[in-house]
Amino acid sequence: MEKTFDLADIEALERFYRVNFITKLCGINNANLIGTTDENGTSNLAIFNSVTHIGANPPFMGFIQRPLTVPRQTYDNIKRSRFFTINQVNNSFFKKAHQTSAKYEKGVSEFEACQLTEQKVDDFPVPFVQESFVKIGLSFEEEHLIKCNQNILVIGKIQKVIISENLIDEDGSILLEKANTTGVAGLNTYFEISQIGKMKFARP
Amino acid sequence: MEKTFDLADIEALERFYRVNFITKLCGINNANLIGTTDENGTSNLAIFNSVTHIGANPPFMGFIQRPLTVPRQTYDNIKRSRFFTINQVNNSFFKKAHQTSAKYEKGVSEFEACQLTEQKVDDFPVPFVQESFVKIGLSFEEEHLIKCNQNILVIGKIQKVIISENLIDEDGSILLEKANTTGVAGLNTYFEISQIGKMKFARP
Predict the structure, then answer these.
(1) ipTM confidence
(2) CATH of A30-186, one of 3.30.930.10, 2.70.70.10, 3.40.50.1820, 2.30.110.10
């Protein structure tokens, strides 16, 4: 049996009920950890469910940053240092990744607090997450203030990709099921994935 | 064994290999069908892998539209009519949903061409996909031209949600595994999902 919610019905929902409901309407996304470094050299790590492909050539990725009404260490660090890393979460450490969403004080590294391992690669100025199988280093490219709710779309240019060699298929595809990539819905529900089809380029 | 790709290595990849590689770096996303109607009343339906939660209160969702260097019926229809629908793809019809990515001429409805069913709800001016279990009707809210590659972030305000009643959990969460929600990576690889954890709000 289908139920219809109009905007007025949605606005009348209890606050936490509404968050659970609305945040899952877009379905599943990948869980990703964004790594940054603050002005004192302290690493920061935060889980995001909004990382999106922006372009392949040149290669860009983006994510949605919540409003700056409270301190946002990830955003502040990116704007200051101009670099960040995106690290795909996998099923072996999704609970540690979720724990990065706790409000740790500035000066505390979530790598230490959540028992994840910093990985430095070449001279890239921001740490990657060693436990991740797919890690991307980016430089800040541009940002857009979303007028309707003061969120920010942050876009980075891919400068470096570190990936386990056995996770790249012959055609360049990253084998996400083999990587045990973790999906996430809303703020709290995690999923494993199983491939059900690889389709050809569609023609009418 | 880990392999590192620098930007120059990525730029040197063969074109299709690079697309397969870069589009899967953000991991898995939900497959969603966006429905619109053109100025002659012909319905349009197109699959997107970039639908993102923008805000819960007021409720907003967005997606990334590729550049307007070729005709983009979804975008043109949204800008003209100011309304669109987002319909979660599920495993029972993901192949039909993929087929909407073929280049059908203007005047051809992908609903008919791909054997999906239009569903009108109340007086909402754009059709939903009957086969979908989670359907959202939105009004155009704002857009942002992404300077680095001319993509566009399109944001809509949620006006209506149509959902199977048995897919809403006690706390408002949508039960995505029960809904057989389909994940997608890049342009061609589809996944089913299995819940592995529902976590509590994290505290330090």
Answers:
(1) 0.97
(2) 2.30.110.10
